[in-house]
Amino acid sequence: MNNKQRWMGGVVLLGGGVLLAALLLKGQDEINHDRQQNPAQAAEVENKESGNHSLGSLTVDVETEKRLLEQQRRDREKAVAEQEARAAEFLAMQQQAEADAARKAAEEYAALNAHRMGQQSSDNIPPELVEDEQAKQKRLAEEKALQEKKLAQQQLDQQKANSSTDAAKKEAERKAAESKAVEEKRKLEQQQKAEAERKAAEAKRKAEEERKATEKKEAERKAAEEKRKADEKRKAEEAKKKAEAEQARKLLEGEEDKQWMVQVALAANEANADAVAAKLRAKGYKVTKSPTSKGIRIMVGPSKDRDTADALRKKITSDASLNMKSAWVNDWVPLDKR
């Protein structure tokens, strides 16, 4: 019975060890495979980006690469965690199976010994069972040390993978920063170019407006000059026509020899007439005296037309020093022409 139980325990231990080793090797192969595949995928993505995408879409590709690397890192961590969990589960199952086998063997041996010796004692364990227990404990310690070593190696590999991921992430960030700087530089150049074009267009528009304003002013000046000349010509023609009409009227009415005088006073005697005449002559007027049946007329003139005589009348009446408010214009023909 003891040999059978030992044989069964050994088979369980051997099967669990083989299964655990297979799982650990499979997890390590998957990790190595992912580690080998990731640089190739990153290089392939990088080559595709550099060959097919323009500068404007580089930022989007970098973000996509970052997401792919992050997803691969999470998948890798998940696979490692699953392998570790399965390894720990099988290790616990193996340890439980070993413990159950040892307990069952000890119980059967104690029952057999109690049956033989008539007492129930579990202290009398055979030396070979003690030796098997020591070998089992040693083996378990070695397996535990191996498992810890493998876990440490896995952690180291994970750290290396994380370092590679961080390096790839930093490189992607660096490329993104470079592409961003290039894009900002391009945008700045476009803005400067657009600003220069806007200023040139503004200067051209202002120059065109100034040219049009100058042309408009010149046209207005020419139009005003032409209008002034036309008005002067029209006025000259009107004056000429008026003079010709006046000359014709005088010829028709016989007023060619008529003169216009401004009569300023009617003196009762010669002395008064001389006094008024002296005052007017002192002002520079040409004075004529003409005796009538009612007195002596004092007149200033003569003038060639009535308008000139009327202007002379207004000048005399407005002179307060002369005090001659009742002056008037009349036509006068000299005696030698009457």
From TrEMBL:
It comes from the Bacteria. Residues 34-61, 115-250 are annotated as: Disordered. Residues 254-331 form the SPOR domain. Residues 133-151, 167-250 have a biased composition (Basic and acidic residues). SUPFAM superfamilies: Sporulation related repeat (SSF110997). InterPro entries: SPOR-like_dom, SPOR-like_sf. PROSITE patterns: SPOR. Pfam families: SPOR. Residues 152-161 have a biased composition (Low complexity). This is SPOR domain-containing protein. It comes from Acinetobacter pecorum.
